[in-house]
Amino acid sequence: MSDKHQPVERLAEAVIGGDRRALARAITLIESLRADDRERATELLAALLPETGGASRIGITGAPGVGKSTFIEAFGLIAIDQGRRVAVLAVDPSSRRGGGALLGDKTRMEALARSEAFIRPSPAGDTLGGVARRTAEALLVCEAAGFDVIIVETVGVGQSETAVADMVDVFLLLLAPGGGDQLQGLKKGIVELADILVVNKCDGELTAAADRLRAEYSGALGLLRPLDVRWKPPVLAASALENTGIDDVWRSIEAHRAALGPGSGIAERRSRQAKAQMWAEIGDGLSAAFEADRAVAGLLATLEDEVARGMTTPHAAASRLLVAFRGDKP
């Protein structure tokens, strides 16, 4: 029987049983944009949902060149040494020609790939946040498969990268010394969302610069209102290359979880995230239905042209399109 026609119940059982191939097939099904695949993916997630919720969900972001992959590899190997099961959902820049992932995290994290970790690179596509469209659902599948540490690596740093904060328990922002005016170079919104900041590459000739950067951010964070009164984001120093400071990051993650409370603060955060994801799905669905509507299609090109030429306002054009979509009489 082909994977395409494998009963959802059997696929769910295989995922829960820890079958790596079944896990990969399940994520591929979830990432599919085909309508029939989306129906099967919905059934699959419903079957897996009772087995989810037990993992520590960790988001890691940072500017290109900050050393995310090296850091995640060192970070993940320590977790494995502690007896944890690690999955990495790494969102790569998409190929403009084929739409596939370009960087291939299994080659960027060779030691981690040779371990017991599960690494899944996915193309970011045009999804805001640098997070693949179905990453939140893939995270649930990994939890159902028994992984208790799930790391979501995002592409670069920018305003849209904050999407990762809506699917993880703790959000890490990696910083690198020697990159010029760091405080001006990063978006304030990302810093405000970070639960833990880590100055990476704190080694060799960069040690002094890393110490300065750590002090600058520690001072800057003192001027920002914390996301949660129960937790003050720390600024840590680490070297993934020399494997130093990684233990401190782990201890900080555990302290964050203890401060929020796994039965209260973390649960509250996950509830807010689930609601936000529901409304995001509603928005996507309405947008797709709107663009596919025949009445809208008949007006859209004309109104876009009129807006571009200044013949009508965006508000007036949108109002006309919404009236057409609802089928109301003008």
Task: Write the topology of this structure.
Elements: H1 8-16, H2 20-31, H3 35-48, E1 56-62, H4 68-81, E2 86-92, H5 105-108, H6 110-114, E3 118-123, H7 135-144, E4 149-153, E5 170-175, H8 182-185, H9 188-193, E6 196-199, H10 207-221, E7 235-237, H11 246-292, H12 294-308, H13 314-326
Parallel strand pairs: 1-4, 1-5, 2-3, 2-4, 5-6, 6-7
Helix pairs in contact: 1-2, 1-3, 2-3, 2-7, 12-13
Radius of gyration from the CA trace?
22 Å
Uncertain stretches of 5 or more adjacent residues: 94-105
CATH superfamily of the largest domain: P-loop containing nucleotide triphosphate hydrolases
Distance from N terminus to C terminus (CA atoms, Å) equals: 54 Å
**Strand numbers in spatial order across the main sheet:** 3-2-4-1-5-6-7
Element order, helices and strands?
Answer: HHHEHEHHEHEEHHEHEHHH
Q: What does the average pLDDT come to?
A: 84
Largest sheet: 7 strands, parallel
Could you describe the 3D structure shown?
The protein is of the alpha/beta class and 330 residues long. The chain has two domains: 1-51, Single alpha-helices involved in coiled-coils or other helix-helix interfaces; 52-260, Rossmann fold, CATH 3.40.50. The protein has 13 helices and seven strands. It has helices at 8-16, 20-31, 35-48, 68-81, 105-108, 110-114, 135-144, 182-185, 188-193, 207-221, 246-292, 294-308, 314-326; strands at 56-62, 86-92, 118-123, 149-153, 170-175, 196-199, 235-237. Strands 3-2-4-1-5-6-7 form a seven-stranded parallel β-sheet, with helices on both faces. Helix 1 packs across helix 2 (20-31), helix 2 (20-31) packs antiparallel against helix 7 and helix 12 (294-308) packs antiparallel against helix 13. The longest helix is centred in the last third of the chain and has 47 residues, at 246-292. It is globular. Residues 94-105 have low confidence and may be disordered.
